[in-house]
Amino acid sequence: MTTRWMLKSVLILSAAVITSCSSFGSSGSVVPPSAPTSTFAMPELEFGRGSMPPSIPTTFPMPESAVVGATMMAGSRNLTEVVATYPADVDAVAGFYTANLPGSGYQVVESAGTAGTWTIAFRGESLSGEIRLDPVASGITTGTLSFVHG
Questions:
Q1: At CA 64, angle to CA 69 and CA 28, rounded to 5?
Q2: Cα–Cα dist 73/6, whole Å
Q3: Most buried among 66, 74, 103, 121, by the most CB within 10 A?
């Protein structure tokens, strides 16, 4: 079992316990990342957990009910990845991002999928990326957010 799948399993169980009573909607609250990026220098390689990394602009929308798990910043690849768990079905999470990305300064380049998997490609002024959403259980979705800087 890969580290990514083990991490997703832990996040899923945590989200099920912590947020089983949460509500979720496409116009729900948005929580900004922990710090702005205007003076941030990407580290060569750094792992984190529990909050959005400082390499992600504060304008990037994140549902308030999302549980941020593992994060990775890889400066040599201009890449940041975030694994998050949402107490909602794939359709609701996809709806949140397609509704909130444009208002936050990001263009939705593509949004497509099925009830099994959904992918959203986006682009902003200094950031582009992809959000891959996968169902875990009824009302629980895991997302892998990949950001390319520059």
A1: 140
A2: 19
A3: 66
Beta bridge partners of 72: 47, 81
Any residues with CB less than 8 A from the CB of 9 and at least 6 apart, and which?
none
Tell me the pLDDT tens digit for each residue of 91-146.
Answer: 999 999 999 999 999 999 999 998 689 999 999 988 999 999 999 999 999 999 99
Tell me how long the chain is: 150
Query: Which pLDDT score, from 0 to 100, does residue 125 have?
Result: 84
**What stretches of 33-92 adopt beta strand conformation (E)?**
46-49, 67-74, 79-86
| Listed residue (145, 108, 100, 143) closest to 124, CA to CA | 108
User: Helix (H, G, I), strand (E, B), or coil: what is residue 16?
Assistant: helix
- Among 63, 80, 79, residue whose Cα is nearest residue 71: 80
pTM of the model: 0.76
Helix or strand (DSSP H, E) at 122: strand 118-123
Euclidean distance between CA atoms 93 and 26, whole angstroms: 7
